[in-house]
Amino acid sequence: MKDKIKARSVPFSQTRSRHASETAEDYVEAVMEMIEEKGECRVLDLARYFNVSHVTVSRIVKRLQDEKLLYSKPYRPVALTAKGFKLAKQVKERHEIVLAFLIELGVDKANAQIDSEGIEHHVGSKTLAAMKRFLK
Amino acid sequence: MKDKIKARSVPFSQTRSRHASETAEDYVEAVMEMIEEKGECRVLDLARYFNVSHVTVSRIVKRLQDEKLLYSKPYRPVALTAKGFKLAKQVKERHEIVLAFLIELGVDKANAQIDSEGIEHHVGSKTLAAMKRFLK
DNA sequence: CATAATCCGTAGCCATTGCTACATTTGGTG
DNA sequence: CACCAAATGTAGCAATGGCTACGGATTATG
Description:
The structure is a homodimer. By secondary structure, chain A is an all-alpha fold. The first copy, chain A, is 67% helix and 3% strand. Chain A has helices at residues 15-38, 43-50, 54-66, 82-105, 109-119, 125-135, and strands spanning 70-71, 79-80. Chain A is globular. The interface between A and B is large, with 48 and 48 residues.
């Protein structure tokens, strides 16, 4: 009989590349934050922030350099390209909206911070707009 | 001067294992859904559902078997263990709440479906409770 | 019941993100 | 300036999740 199984609403094919994009978003956001906070962003700052080894950071920074989101020279701080800065601003804004939304919804700040970091990557423009309306 | 950079609110170390858990959640939910819909769940059903090759499904099913979430014999349908069924029910309930929440928030159904699938994995108990309150 | 179609497993490749161990560069300090 | 500590890079391994190609198992069909 073979009932048809419908594919996921969003062919969430490319799980791998989606995860890679999330990493990119997290990194540019963190780099921007650190540059704002302490003037520069080192590999070890990112390693401590994400709780991973400096090796992991180093490799990801290299990849994001290939994607023209970051630049850095060996043994030098990491900086954002124009493209990376633009992305970082978008990500940060979205993150802040999601966080404010969860708090407004009644989630305690600690849990709102935790969940917003996971949720933010999956909030599309329509959902983001709905959150903004809710905040007004 | 070295200002301290605070670590992420949730040491989101082990990104890899977190992603693996998300995969487990997606799979048990899908298996339960298919068994409800058509009586059994085959590897190819999952492959079509997730838009990946049967090889990918096969390997993940094997891993989830090791984790005692699924069981299956070669060339046979996939079934849920008690543990897998319990997880699937939790995941499905959470998914439904997130979906209903987004729709209630004013997101159109299509986008609510897309975003809920990404968001659900990052909704902690406190956030889920807040969403339930909002729905009442 | 034989054969074809479908399903599924295995081999083996790649990318991403973890790691430890070791090498190198930078920068500060005597 | 020489040397040490801290920061970063490199080599190489593992786990996860993608893939194609190929072969074996099951099922359907004449």
